[in-house]
Amino acid sequence: MLIRKLADCPEFIAGDQTRLRELLHPDKQPINLRYSLAHAVLPIGQTSLPHVLQTSEVYYVLSGTGEMHIDAAAAVIQAGDAVYIPPQSRQFLRNIGSQPLVFLCIVDPAWKVEDETVEPQ
After folding, report:
1. pLDDT tens string 111-120
2. What's the rounded Cα separation, in Å, for the pair 84 and 38?
3. How much is the pTM?
4. Beta partners for 56?
5. Could you tell me which CDD domains the record lists for this protein (predicted)?
6. CA distance 63 to 98
Protein backbone atom coordinates (compact mmCIF):
# COMPACT_ATOMS: atom_id res chain seq x y z
CA MET A 1 0.00 0.00 0.00
CA LEU A 2 1.29 3.45 -0.88
CA ILE A 3 -0.11 6.52 0.86
CA ARG A 4 1.28 9.96 0.06
CA LYS A 5 0.43 12.86 2.34
CA LEU A 6 0.25 16.27 0.69
CA ALA A 7 2.21 17.84 3.56
CA ASP A 8 5.10 15.44 2.87
CA CYS A 9 5.37 16.43 -0.80
CA PRO A 10 7.73 19.36 -1.38
CA GLU A 11 6.20 22.39 -3.08
CA PHE A 12 7.91 23.87 -6.14
CA ILE A 13 7.11 26.37 -8.87
CA ALA A 14 6.21 24.53 -12.07
CA GLY A 15 7.23 25.72 -15.52
CA ASP A 16 3.82 27.34 -15.99
CA GLN A 17 4.31 29.24 -12.66
CA THR A 18 1.73 27.32 -10.62
CA ARG A 19 2.69 26.05 -7.14
CA LEU A 20 2.87 22.29 -7.43
CA ARG A 21 3.24 19.24 -5.18
CA GLU A 22 3.72 15.95 -6.99
CA LEU A 23 1.69 13.23 -5.25
CA LEU A 24 2.18 10.24 -7.54
CA HIS A 25 4.58 9.61 -10.42
CA PRO A 26 5.57 6.16 -11.71
CA ASP A 27 9.20 7.30 -12.13
CA LYS A 28 9.43 8.40 -8.49
CA GLN A 29 7.53 5.73 -6.57
CA PRO A 30 7.61 1.93 -6.90
CA ILE A 31 4.15 1.77 -8.50
CA ASN A 32 2.75 0.45 -11.74
CA LEU A 33 0.91 3.57 -12.83
CA ARG A 34 0.45 5.07 -16.28
CA TYR A 35 -0.42 8.64 -15.17
CA SER A 36 1.00 11.23 -12.77
CA LEU A 37 -0.99 13.12 -10.13
CA ALA A 38 -0.11 16.55 -8.76
CA HIS A 39 -1.76 19.10 -6.45
CA ALA A 40 -1.61 22.65 -7.84
CA VAL A 41 -2.32 26.11 -6.45
CA LEU A 42 -2.72 29.29 -8.48
CA PRO A 43 -2.71 32.34 -6.16
CA ILE A 44 -5.36 35.06 -6.28
CA GLY A 45 -5.09 37.26 -9.38
CA GLN A 46 -2.39 35.16 -11.06
CA THR A 47 -2.33 33.51 -14.48
CA SER A 48 -0.34 30.42 -15.39
CA LEU A 49 1.96 30.68 -18.38
CA PRO A 50 0.56 29.31 -21.64
CA HIS A 51 1.94 25.86 -22.29
CA VAL A 52 1.44 22.77 -24.45
CA LEU A 53 1.70 19.15 -23.35
CA GLN A 54 2.18 16.30 -25.79
CA THR A 55 0.00 14.20 -23.49
CA SER A 56 -3.56 14.54 -22.22
CA GLU A 57 -4.29 16.25 -18.92
CA VAL A 58 -7.26 16.55 -16.58
CA TYR A 59 -7.73 19.32 -14.02
CA TYR A 60 -10.08 18.64 -11.12
CA VAL A 61 -10.90 21.83 -9.20
CA LEU A 62 -10.94 21.47 -5.40
CA SER A 63 -11.58 25.13 -4.53
CA GLY A 64 -11.63 28.58 -6.04
CA THR A 65 -12.75 29.98 -9.38
CA GLY A 66 -10.75 30.24 -12.56
CA GLU A 67 -10.95 31.00 -16.24
CA MET A 68 -9.64 28.03 -18.24
CA HIS A 69 -8.22 28.65 -21.72
CA ILE A 70 -7.70 25.75 -24.12
CA ASP A 71 -6.70 26.81 -27.63
CA ALA A 72 -9.34 29.39 -28.70
CA ALA A 73 -11.94 28.35 -26.09
CA ALA A 74 -12.39 29.83 -22.59
CA ALA A 75 -14.72 28.90 -19.74
CA VAL A 76 -15.16 29.64 -16.05
CA ILE A 77 -14.33 26.66 -13.82
CA GLN A 78 -14.95 26.15 -10.11
CA ALA A 79 -14.88 23.57 -7.34
CA GLY A 80 -16.24 20.22 -8.51
CA ASP A 81 -15.39 20.76 -12.18
CA ALA A 82 -13.23 18.33 -14.17
CA VAL A 83 -11.58 19.74 -17.31
CA TYR A 84 -10.15 17.51 -20.05
CA ILE A 85 -7.23 19.06 -21.94
CA PRO A 86 -6.41 17.20 -25.17
CA PRO A 87 -2.80 16.48 -26.15
CA GLN A 88 -1.01 19.31 -28.00
CA SER A 89 -3.49 21.98 -26.85
CA ARG A 90 -2.29 25.44 -25.81
CA GLN A 91 -3.58 25.95 -22.27
CA PHE A 92 -3.44 28.39 -19.40
CA LEU A 93 -5.51 29.22 -16.35
CA ARG A 94 -6.38 32.55 -14.70
CA ASN A 95 -7.51 32.81 -11.08
CA ILE A 96 -10.52 35.14 -11.20
CA GLY A 97 -11.78 34.41 -7.69
CA SER A 98 -11.22 35.78 -4.21
CA GLN A 99 -9.30 32.73 -2.93
CA PRO A 100 -6.45 30.56 -4.22
CA LEU A 101 -7.44 28.25 -7.07
CA VAL A 102 -6.62 24.71 -5.94
CA PHE A 103 -6.80 21.78 -8.34
CA LEU A 104 -5.47 18.32 -9.12
CA CYS A 105 -3.55 17.66 -12.34
CA ILE A 106 -3.68 14.19 -13.86
CA VAL A 107 -1.32 13.73 -16.81
CA ASP A 108 -1.59 10.60 -18.97
CA PRO A 109 0.90 9.22 -19.80
CA ALA A 110 2.85 10.52 -16.79
CA TRP A 111 4.31 14.03 -17.05
CA LYS A 112 7.85 14.39 -18.44
CA VAL A 113 9.73 17.64 -18.88
CA GLU A 114 10.41 16.87 -22.55
CA ASP A 115 6.65 16.56 -23.20
CA GLU A 116 5.92 20.17 -22.15
CA THR A 117 6.61 23.45 -23.94
CA VAL A 118 6.06 26.62 -21.87
CA GLU A 119 5.78 29.99 -23.60
CA PRO A 120 8.25 32.55 -22.26
CA GLN A 121 6.94 35.43 -20.13
Report:
1. 999 999 999 8
2. 15
3. 0.95
4. 108
5. cupin_MJ1618 (cd02214)
6. 11
